[in-house]
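Private note to self, pasted from the team thread so I don't lose it. Backbone tokens:
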């Protein structure tokens, strides 16, 4: 039924194309980097003629398609940081034109921070709530320990809030941390952090493109409520072999790439590792040299073009963290992903991408005490099959497809030895099947008016085997049923409409509006402000309904001085349903009846986002400001009234500046300010038998102190030769040495136990860094 509905929708979309007596022809092809063979995402392809001018941009694989009336035109291809190329064509039949663009040597003398796209795409495109990162920006944005980081950089964009000091966790437009869909070459990354959040899993050397959707998500994305972070790995150089990397104070990285068959296939392998544990081993202190503290990750990708119509891509990621204290505990966790994709060009209008995807996240915690030993393991694993097609018609880009994902969650397995004081426990695995089909159309109605509309139909089924219980108001089991392997226990089906529109007042100004609905069936249960390695994952079930979010947004967008200056202002309102919280004192880990501990409610989030960016010249950068409110409401909490969500912050400000002094020296700085997170402080205390007990009233009615931080950095490029280039990066994190809050604890004052004092913990003072980067 869903398939038939999508076919009907597809033909309805196509039917909107107006008939024309004049003969039309199509040009198509692929756009690549002339130096490396990498496909260019979002390159501009424009046809200019005496009677008509129109254009498009290349897709995620560098493919483009344009259809126009017969005649003579200039075909112009451009991409930020590359020399534009123009070709005179006579459109009298359909034809294929591939392009390889050369880097613009003149652009190397200044910093350009616009991601590859049409110069005024932020004004003309109907897409709202989209931010794209240029990976070259990360070379200059100062971050903790000098390790360039995708997740810490997006935290300085409007509508995105940091999960904490030095942390890679983030919240988008009032959503929780688990409401962000993070994709690496289409594979879901469930835990995107290393070393408890101080580093992200994304090694910037291996990353090609980063797109963050905060609203108006296109129909091909689904499964999370608040945002999509779509990260794509580099394909590898198919022209020549190369090596690059960096050596820092606590971590080093290296990347190797080159052709498999020149101009037809390539590979890329990138690896990174910290060596804090190696420094610990050098210590003469036995309490230090036997401890473990490290992470490593490996990105790999290869591709091969069989012919003009078929290309295969195989990519994978493996990352692992290890933390341990001798004779006390050991904790390790990691992600594994693998993606196989086949691109097929059916004809000059129809492009296909078929993907098979595997991803897994697992952790293990081990207590090493002889009398209290125990090992706790957990994992979440997905198999995903996707089919995506793009059809290019006159004034339309139609996208449709389907996907199926099989989930398995192993909540907790506890194993012990015979003399342990803990009992072994195995919580039943849970299985789920998630299906989706979608269709969308980006329609250029007039030169001024564009819309992007579509529909995603999703279903989620809880599968057997297992025992499934329902619970009464007291959390006691009301009934239980047992299902066999493959049985459908509970199924939810939702329609998720998506709509965005832009109206151009002129070439430099536009207004936009969007609406989208999203559903979510994989949920995290946690007491922490951001994701932690031991987060508990649960599926929608007979007790847990899918989370729902409806968001509307409006915005004003303006460019000036040949798009050198960009400004946007967006307002949004988001309604959240079936939100999950937990009862006071809930036991979330190793609990076979964890669903009995949960509460369900609603939420709302609204705000204003302002963004100003300078994209060209010696001085570039941006300023972002967010004014927002995020609240939740549960009948059992705060007397059923709305209360601040823990990620609620009124003000968030970020200022980023990059100054290119000369071809060798680049200086940069960023300043951030944010209101403190919402927290619950004790309202009073009482003493029983010499033990102080605190009591609490309203949930999240208090605030942590504000956060303010200035980071600075400088990059010195060494003299470049034909085969070798290198640079030194110097940085200072928290240059003003402000003790920003990480946590606050309350205790009796030693001099007067009847009084209470608050003790603030801060993680970082001034932290210098130095990194040597090389490429040959």
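Design output:
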């Amino acid at each position: 039924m869903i398939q038939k509905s999508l076919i009907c929708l597809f033909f309805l979309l196509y039917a909107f194309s107006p008939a024309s007596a004049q003969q039309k022809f199509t040009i198509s092809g692929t756009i690549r980097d002339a130096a490396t063979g990498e496909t260019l995402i979002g390159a501009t392809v424009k046809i200019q003629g005496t009677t008509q001018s129109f254009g498009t941009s290349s897709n995620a694989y560098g493919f483009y398609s344009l259809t126009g009336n017969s005649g003579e035109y200039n075909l112009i291809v451009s991409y930020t940081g590359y020399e534009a190329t123009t070709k005179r064509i006579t459109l009298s039949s359909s034809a294929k034109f591939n392009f390889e663009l050369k880097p613009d040597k003149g652009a190397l003398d200044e910093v350009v921070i616009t991601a590859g796209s049409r110069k005024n795409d932020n004004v003309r495109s109907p897409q709202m709530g989209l931010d794209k990162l240029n990976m070259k920006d990360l070379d200059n944005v100062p971050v903790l320990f000098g390790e360039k980081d995708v997740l810490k950089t997006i935290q300085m964009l409007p509508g995105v809030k940091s999960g904490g000091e030095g942390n890679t966790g983030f919240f988008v437009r009032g959503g929780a941390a688990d409401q962000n869909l993070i994709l690496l070459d289409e594979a879901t990354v469930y835990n995107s952090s290393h070393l408890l959040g101080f580093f992200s899993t994304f090694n910037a050397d291996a990353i090609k493109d980063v797109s963050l959707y905060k609203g108006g998500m296109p129909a091909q994305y689904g499964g999370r409520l608040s945002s999509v972070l779509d990260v794509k790995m580099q394909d590898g150089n198919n022209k020549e072999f190369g090596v690059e990397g960096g050596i820092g104070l606590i971590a080093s990285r290296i990347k190797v790439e080159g052709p498999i068959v020149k101009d037809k296939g390539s590979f890329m392998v990138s690896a990174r590792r910290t060596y804090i544990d190696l420094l610990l081993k050098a210590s003469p202190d036995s309490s230090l040299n036997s401890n473990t503290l490290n992470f490593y990750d490996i990105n790999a990708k290869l591709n091969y073009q069989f012919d003009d119509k078929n290309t295969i891509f195989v990519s994978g990621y493996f990352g692992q963290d290890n933390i341990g204290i001798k004779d006390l505990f050991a904790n390790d966790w990691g992600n594994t992903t693998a993606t196989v994709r086949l691109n097929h060009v059916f004809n000059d209008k129809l492009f296909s991408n078929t993907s098979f995807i595997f991803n897994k996240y697992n952790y293990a915690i081990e207590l090493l005490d002889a009398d209290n030993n125990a090992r706790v393991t957990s994992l979440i694993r997905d198999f995903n099959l996707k089919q995506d097609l793009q059809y290019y018609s006159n004034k339309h880009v139609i996208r449709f497809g389907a996907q199926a994902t099989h989930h398995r969650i192993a909540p907790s397995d506890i194993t012990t030895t015979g003399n342990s004081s803990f009992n072994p426990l195995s919580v039943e695995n849970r299985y789920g099947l998630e299906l989706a089909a979608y269709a969308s159309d980006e329609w250029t109605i007039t030169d001024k008016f564009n819309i992007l509309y579509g529909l995603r139909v999703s279903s989620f089924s809880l599968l057997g085997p297992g025992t499934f219980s329902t619970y009464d108001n007291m959390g006691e089991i009301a009934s239980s049923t047992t299902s066999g392997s493959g049985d459908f226990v509970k199924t939810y089906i939702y329609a998720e409409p998506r709509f965005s529109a832009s109206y151009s007042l002129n070439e430099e100004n536009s207004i936009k509006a969007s609406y989208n609905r999203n559903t979510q069936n994989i949920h995290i249960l946690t007491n922490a402000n951001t994701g932690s390695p031991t987060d508990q994952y649960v599926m929608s079930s007979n007790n847990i309904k899918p989370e729902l979010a409806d968001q509307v947004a409006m915005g004003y967008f303006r460019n000036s001085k040949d798009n050198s200056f960009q400004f946007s202002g967006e307002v949004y309102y988001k309604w959240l349903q079936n939100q999950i919280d937990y009862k006071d004192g809930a036991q979330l880990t190793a609990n076979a009846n964890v669903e009995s501990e949960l509460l369900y409610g609603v939420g709302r989030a609204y705000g204003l986002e302002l963004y100003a960016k300078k994209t060209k010249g010696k001085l570039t950068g941006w300023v972002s400001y967010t004014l927002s409110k995020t609240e939740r409401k549960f009948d059992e909490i705060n007397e059923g009234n709305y209360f601040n969500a823990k990620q609620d912050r009124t003000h968030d400000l970020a200022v980023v500046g990059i100054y290119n002094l000369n071809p060798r020296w680049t200086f940069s700085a960023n300043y951030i300010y944010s209101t403190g997170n919402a927290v619950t402080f004790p309202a009073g205390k009482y003493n029983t038998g010499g033990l102080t007990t605190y009591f609490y009233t309203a949930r999240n009615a208090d605030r942590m102190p504000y956060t303010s931080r200035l980071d600075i950095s400088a990059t010195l490029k060494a003299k470049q030769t034909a085969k070798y280039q290198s640079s030194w990066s110097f940085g200072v994190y928290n240059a003003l040495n402000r003790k920003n809050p990480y946590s606050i604890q309350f205790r009796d004052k030693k001099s007067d136990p009847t009084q209470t004092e608050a003790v603030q913990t801060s993680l970082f003072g001034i932290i210098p860094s130095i990194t040597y980067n090389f490429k040959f």
